[in-house]
């Protein structure tokens, strides 16, 4: 098995361990992951400070592309 195949398998296993509804979550849903509201607010503050947040919708292009590759379509 090549290094690339090993890494692909590791990513697939890690992705499979995360429940589908928790894989991609907008900042307003982070309180479900980080249950302490102050911790959640601090994390969001540090990630977004000085940045521009652009909401592009709810569907992840990368996730859809990866699923299509696993299903044999592109």
Give the topology string: H per helix, E per strand. HHH
| Gap between N and C termini | 24 Å
Beta fraction of the residues? under 5%
Radius of gyration: 16 Å
- Average pLDDT metric: 74
Number of alpha- plus pi-helical segments: 3
Task: Report the principal-axis shape.
Answer: elongated
Task: Report the sheet with the most strands, covering strand number, pairing sense and barrel closure.
Answer: none
Stretches where pLDDT is under 50 for at least 5 consecutive residues are none
Approximately how much helix is present in the residues? Answer: 40-55%
Please identify the structural class as seen in this structure.
Answer: mainly alpha
Count of distinct strands: 0
Q: Please, how many domains?
A: 1
Structural description of this entry:
The structure is a single chain. The protein has 74 residues and is mostly helical. It has one domain. It is built from three helices and no strands. The longest helix is centred in the N-terminal third of the chain and has 15 residues. The mean pLDDT is 74.
Short description:
This protein has 74 residues and is mostly helical. It has 3 helices and no strands. The radius of gyration is 16 Å and the shape is elongated.
What keywords describe this structure?
74 residues; mainly alpha; 3 helices; elongated; ATP binding; IstB_ATP-bd; IstB-like ATP-binding domain-containing protein
Layout: helices, strands, pairs:
Blueprint: H1 3-17, H2 37-48, H3 61-70
